[in-house]
Amino acid sequence: MAASSAGLGFGIAEAVAKQGGSVSMASRTQSSIEKAAKTLSDTHGARTKGYVMDATDPASISAWIDATVRDFGRIDGLVVNAGGPPPGKFDKFTDEEWAKGFNLTLMSAVRMIRGVLPTMRSQGSGSIVTITSSSIKEPIDILLLSNVFRSGVVSLVKSLSPDLAKEGIRINNLVPGQIDTDRVRANDEYASTAQGLPIGEIQKQRYQAIPMGRYGTIQEFGEVGAFLLSDSARYITGATLFVDGGKSKTVW
Known about the structure:
Number of helices: 8
Number of strands: 6
CATH class of the largest domain: Alpha Beta
Shape: globular
CATH architecture of the largest domain: 3-Layer(aba) Sandwich
CATH superfamily of the largest domain: NAD(P)-binding Rossmann-like Domain
Order of helices and strands: HEHEHEHEHEHHHE
Number of domains: 2
Radius of gyration: 18 Å
Distance between the termini: 28 Å
Helix content: 40-55%
Structural class: alpha/beta
């Protein structure tokens, strides 16, 4: 599980641990990922281990995957996840910021998927889930970099799915709506400052746009991720599944 010390990645890791799965957890900060792994081990009795991994560094991604194979013996599932690019408007982004967004969001997915495929192919099985964003279908005004590069991840997954299916490997996208994470709270604060409105008013407006009238929880999201990784989803591949309380209005 990439980027799993907290938030959406941790939610999936916890759901897998509850079901008795072993979990390789990765994050940029050693203390945070070791604490998260220990929490799951102590709470659910799961076999877990935390690794330091920088999603922007190809060598770091490879080292994490190699260590996971060494320590666990196999890789049955991969959760592709990384922190999102910063918010902002088009005219404010430099070429360097575009390159950083490309490396963080799209190339991290390419590298993680490429890294696990040899092991999954040797096993003849595996499930890959990318955590992406609702911006793939409905662009979000303040998240231009995310809009562009997360759409690329979805296209990558759809392009890979037919060939990987023939090898017993499934690959799907998981789309969070407004899930109550630190990133969503940070976006609320950004909107509050930009619009000159109290953060409570921003959240009230956003709740009203969600048919279920609230943000989702990390646990709710995590359980759907664990489902896609599991054999219960064995006939699902190349799909993009929304966990958004009914907010998305697209019909495809």
